[in-house]
Specification:
alpha+beta, Small CPxCG-related zinc finger protein, DUF7569, two-stranded antiparallel ribbon
């Protein structure tokens, strides 16, 4: 059985499909069926967005005002 990839629309065999399901407090937020290429792209975006941002500029600390 082939179903389309939710990323590119190409047919994906079950053996090659990757299911991505994100849940918050038990409720499904996102559920996708992806081909290997779209899955690799999804992982790259996830890692980029979820990794801590490195900042060489400490200007954010100077913006904190404490009364």
């Amino acid at each position: 059985m082939s179903d389309p990839c939710d990323g590119c629309g190409r047919a994906v065999e079950d053996a090659l499909a990757r299911a991505v399901q994100l849940q918050v407090d038990g409720s499904t937020v996102d559920d996708q069926r992806l081909c290997p290429t779209c899955f690799a792209d999804w992982i790259t975006r996830y890692e980029e967005q979820m990794s801590p941002k490195q900042s060489s500029d400490d200007s954010t600390d100077s913006e904190i005002i404490v009364d």
